[in-house]
Amino acid sequence: MEFSKSLKLNHLFRRLYSKGKSCANGYLVIYCRKNGTQENRIGLTVSAKLGHAVVRNKIRRRLREIYRLHEQQFKPGWDIVVVARGRAVQASYHKLEKSYLHLAEKLELLHETDPS
To answer: What is the CATH T-level fold of the domain 4-106, as seen in this structure?
Structure first.
C-alpha cells in the first residue's frame, strides 16, 4: 500500500468507533475520521464469531486486497476501520468489493469521478 499505513493501536480504533462517521450494509461497516496527515491509516476488524482463524484471515486478505487495488481512488488523510459482518464469510470477492466501494462512496472517501 503506497499511500497508507496500518491502524493497529486500540485507542485509535476506539476513537473512530465513538467519534467517527460510519456507514453499514449487510457485509461491512466502515468507520472513518480525518487524521490530519497526507496518508490513510487502515484498520480491519474480523470477529472471532465469524469463524476459525483460516476464515477470518481469508476475509482480512480480501479486504486488504480490495483497498490495495483501489487505493488511488481514496482521498488521503483519513483513518478508516472496516468491520466485517457475518454475511461477509459467504460473500464472493466481487460482492465484498462492491459493498466496500459503495460504503466508501457514501462516506465521501473516494475522489470525485467525472460522469462524462
So the answer is: Ribosomal Protein S5; domain 2 (3.30.230)
